[in-house]
Amino acid sequence: MQDVQDILDEAVHLKNVTGISMSMRSDTEHILLQSGYSSARTKRPFSLNDRFQVGSLTKMFVAASILKLKDEGRLDLDQKVLDFVHHPNLHPNLTIRHLLKHRSGLKDYISMKHEGKALVSYGIQDYYLPPALLIKTAAERSPNQEPGAPFNYSNTNFIILGMIIEEITRQSASDVLDALFTHPLELKNTSLPKQAMRLSTHGHSSLTDDLTEETRERKELSFYNPSIPWTAGAMVSTPDEINKWLFSLMSGELLEDESLKEMMSFSYTGEGTEKYGLGLAQFQFYDETNAVGHRGGIQGYESLALYFPNEHACLTILINQMPGSVGLIAKNIYKTLFLKNEAQS
């Protein structure tokens, strides 16, 4: 365990990462480690319950919610989106499956402008924007959208999925996620916030507010507006609670076997060795190693949640800095925890 702690400490002290919190969970081990600070300004150390913005790890939860509704007979993955979300610029052949697989043809709203500013920049301002406006902005600028198009990662897809969840259940997406997952699994620090808030774990970013350029200044961010990323990336959690959820998912406790199989029906994205299923990605770590999960990045935070089928183990790393090299840190931890153990055996 000290070897893993050394990896975290090196990232903080030698690579100037503000703070890292990680969890590893398997049938036989449970490791919780942290390094650095929740705030570079106050130097406050982490507690195990400190919540991070987890960005696009949210997509795993939203996709699982859709599949859970399918298991309950309340929707079909090949059902038309227009059955639930009525917008003149959405293609009549667009299905829920297209959204989950990022093959909708819809462009990503996140970098598009609203009143002269990129929508993503409103994520650190107290400025509510409804999901319908986000969809309208993207749909109007995707005039040649064609469902079943080549893979194109677009946050717009998961905003629409959030609206579908609310239309079917007549509840907020936040309440649905609580009812399906966070309450049954007793995830007390995991939620999809309904309103702007301040987190005790501050974000730190050297990027411009629209995330397009890196600067020499590292800003500290405490204010958080969930209406911009919403069901595409607004959840907050801890690494251990993300791990608990992911381990339960992969152990077959949350979905019917057929739905979990569909969630993991991976196909190439055109981005190196990465594949994508339904709200889940498959990453190649080493020559013979694949991991399943998702990565996330949002102003001031980076995240990565991974399940390793060969080891039946989950690893989640949350960093309160952007950029923070979370992928490299994860590879070093995997190598230390698992490849070294193989060599010794």
UniProtKB/TrEMBL annotation:
Domain of life: Bacteria
Annotated ranges, domain Beta-lactamase-related: 7-326
SUPFAM superfamilies recorded: beta-lactamase/transpeptidase-like (SSF56601)
Pfam families on file: Beta-lactamase
Coiled coil: none
Protein name as annotated: Beta-lactamase family protein
Organism this protein belongs to: Halobacillus kuroshimensis
